[in-house]
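Input record (one chain):
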Amino acid sequence: MIEVTVKSKISGRFKTGSFTARELLHTYEDDLVCNLTQCNCQPVGETYVVECNCDEEWEEYDLFFSDGF
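The corresponding structure, as predicted from the sequence alone:
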């Protein structure tokens, strides 16, 4: 497994996940970052409108890979 870490340039927060080499070969960078930084936004009230901007934190990022060596 290869450890992938994404660091937000806006907040400085880190998110980490593990992927196989095959998964990384078949995944675009944007999809990888999206998977690691998923938001769990909920609708507000009974309107079912989701007002969530947590994805903005991850618009600018650094991506790091570590194979354990």
